[in-house]
Amino acid sequence: VQLQASGGGLVQTGGSLRLSCAASGRPFSNTDMGWFRQAPGKEREFVAGITWRINTRYTDSVNGRFTASRDNAKNTGYLQMNSLKPEDTAVYYCALRSGRASISLPDRQSYDYWGHGTQVTVSS
Q1: Helix, coil or strand: residue 60
Q2: Is residue 12 within 8 Å of 122, Cβ to Cβ?
Q3: How far is CA 109 from CA 23, 26, 27, 95, 114, in A?
Q4: Over the stretch 70-97, which tens digit does the pLDDT of each residue have?
Q5: I want to staple 68 with a disulfide (CB 3.0 to 4.6 A). Which of 37, 48, 80, 98 is the partner?
Q6: Nearest-CA neighbor of 85 among 121, 32, 42, 119?
């Protein structure tokens, strides 16, 4: 299984970016996708996730600004990021696991596959 993340870049405060994560090597429609980020000197943290049933969850700091979505026909998940802030600066990772309603989306250890990460930098 391969996850190819893209869409990162440099944006000013208040700007927007859309991250994409294309999956290959396994059926996509029955998976959960999580988005995590890691800033320098900090642990990797959960940002957002979307289940195979299209349920979403967000960490408090991005709720209302970020939106996770997916297109099963394209085997791709998305993270739309609006109203970006300097504190959103980090490397963003997508992750994939088999659909598991019993395990919370933020559980980092529950994901089987990880993308390589894409840098998001928000300038003040």
Answers
A1: coil
A2: yes
A3: 19, 20, 21, 10, 11
A4: 999 999 999 999 999 999 999 999 999 9
A5: 48
A6: 121
